[in-house]
Design goal:
The structure is a homodimer.
Chain A lengths: L4 H8 L3 H8 L9 H14 L5 H8 L4 E6 L5 H16 L3 E6 L4 H13 L4 E4 L7 H9 L3 E5 L8 E4 L1 H14 L5 E5 L5 H16 L6 E4 L4 H14 L4 E4 L2 H13 L9 E3 L8 H6 L5 E3 L2 H14 L5 E3 L2 E3 L3 H8 L1
Parallel strand pairs in A: 1-2, 1-3, 3-4, 4-5, 5-11, 6-7, 6-8, 8-9
Antiparallel strand pairs in A: 10-12
Chain A binds a DNA duplex through helix 2 and helix 4.
DNA sequence: GTGAAAGCGCTAACAC
DNA sequence: GTGTTAGCGCTTTCAC
């Protein structure tokens, strides 16, 4: 049913290796053009495609990459994934995209699977800082590993300058005159959450002040909503700052239900600018946030991994003050 | 550096085929337990994993599936992809997830790539109805093809009952008393857009009326926003119905900028209930929409493809009247 | 109950 | 310039 290299060779009246040479453009120079033509004709006539498994076995290379993120339905990670995949595709690599669902056990299973698939590299956004063992096993096998967005000690990472950006955000808000800010942080085991909290604290403390309160969320809409409700009932916050936009959306919702308005009654800020596509910005123009160049993060991570550069990289971010996008839109 | 089956065999003092039998649980019954133990020990000690390429070559099966969607950053398709992948993973299949970016040429390139990867099946949300040729080539090669969400004649599909659901939506809105409804449709070459428009028309006409106007959008936020602006300036609509939620979000934004309020001044409806995760519903409780069980769509499509059932399937949908989710939340 | 041997489809070193 | 040949790592038929 399916043509093999031998059938192509027979039909063209040549040996299999000649066909192979044509396919891989090997000694295209030293080959009689008419031979090449005959081979190409046979390939076309038989609709021949090389069997990848045979190539991989023979070449001892898979040209495959694994991408493992905590949640592909989260726009942030979807854009990151796309960045990685685009570079991989350009360079002739096949990407295996996996979704750990924020579950370290699923993460471990997928790493196992990627190992079994003999990927040459893995680009990973880890669920936490736990299982370096699974990663070390990959490295021991010669698989290149590059972390994205979140750090784990001992592995290279391409990440945003979360701490610096968060400090800048804090300074911006202090400049607007807020004095009783409550911070909703993210999961303890995630470096981005920690960095953002630290950076924000840096800013507040350098002014001699401190945060009115810090609560821990889970980077989800619900957890932002619940935390904000609590804050609005008990604290006398003049601003609520969430460690990511998803939680900030929850805050906005809670503020709205309380009959308050942003920024008149209270300030609200997020982080990571989940929108990237226009609609969330349009829906929530009052949100102050920080843009993380997540697509570029994916591209850089893939490039470095493929180029064999095993060192880390920090990407710069952009502060998006509330209201900006609306203004831009109106001005166009 | 990496162990092969022969090394495992030598270390266990058996022949390679015995190791293979253990790995694949073949004649586990007729095997001396101590032999099996010795083999398992060697596997563990050498951290052995079979080379997939060799297995695939020998077995003449890849256990790989292709998933090709127009935009993985769109939550709708991300959830669909996840549904497919979950079933594939459960059954020991590897998924190759691809993103055509709504571009028929990229779509063709990815189909090519999947063919080269020797996938056993392709689950596809086509960009349009154009290139059946690429699909036919796959089928001719023995690759199973299952469409999702959007139809192309001649191929099986798992889709929502868009026409029926849209009719129900129309009847619901008519029941609320709207009389001058303007419809924003989707791209002409996409069956879902066509079906939704037809169904909505069915409803309005069965009451002896007709739509005040029909405009064509591109299923994007921007196109919904722009169309709504036009409508609000020229038509005297009492309701705007968009063929998907993304455009409906654009409509809501335009309505807001116009200083109008939903549903007091104007009704707004969407389709496909993009939220699925709580946050969009929370942010936009006033939107009336139709829930499409898109994760289940993915699971069903994968199951049917893997089970060799090459017939189509329509899934039922659920009407979500505006305001419902807020009410539910408050009640909890 | 286990082993020997062939071969899946391809590539590359070496012939000529 | 092109062909011959060996072998990548695995599974499976057929011996015994």
């Amino acid at each position: 049913m399916r043509a093999t290299i031998r059938e192509v060779a027979e039909r063209a009246g040549v040996a299999p290796c000649t066909v192979s040479r044509v396919l891989n453009g090997h000694d295209a120079e030293h080959m009689r053009p008419e031979t090449k033509e005959r081979v190409l004709d046979s390939i076309r006539e038989l609709d021949y495609t090389p069997v990848r498994a045979a190539q991989r076995l023979r070449r001892q290379r898979t040209h495959a990459l694994g991408i493992l993120v905590p949640d592909i339905t989260n726009l942030y990670f979807a854009l990151l994934t796309r960045g990685v995949e685009s570079v991989a595709f350009e360079r002739g690599f096949t990407s295996l995209i996996c979704d750990s669902s924020h579950d370290p056990r699923r993460e471990a299973r997928y790493l196992e699977m990627l190992l079994a698939e003999d990927v040459e590299g893995v680009l990973l956004v880890p669920t936490g800082r736990g299982d370096a063992s699974a990663l070390k096993r990959l490295v021991a096998r010669g698989v290149r590993v590059m972390l994205m967005d979140r750090r784990i000690v001992g592995f290279p990472v391409v990440e945003a300058d979360n701490r610096g950006a968060s400090r800048a955000l804090g300074e911006h808000l202090l400049g607007l005159g807020y004095e009783r800010m409550v911070y909703i942080s993210g999961p303890a085991e995630v470096s981005t959450a920690e960095d953002r909290l630290c950076g924000f604290r840096d800013a507040v403390r350098s002014e001699g002040g401190d945060l009115a309160d810090v609560r821990r969320g889970a980077f989800t809409f619900e957890s932002g909503f619940d935390a904000a409700r609590e804050i609005l009932r008990h604290d006398k916050a003049d601003a609520i700052v969430a460690a990511n936009d998803l939680m900030a959306f929850g805050v906005l919702r809670a503020v709205e239900e309380e009959g308050l308005s942003v920024p008149r009654d209270i300030g609200v800020a997020g982080f990571d600018h989940v929108p990237h596509v226009p609609y969330a910005t349009f829906l929530r123009p009052e949100l102050t946030t920080v843009d993380v160049p997540v697509h570029e993060m994916g591209r850089q991570a893939a490039r470095r991994l493929l180029d064999g550069k095993a060192d880390s990289l920090q990407l710069a971010t952009t502060l998006i003050p509330g209201g900006t996008c609306i203004a831009r839109r109106r001005g166009k």
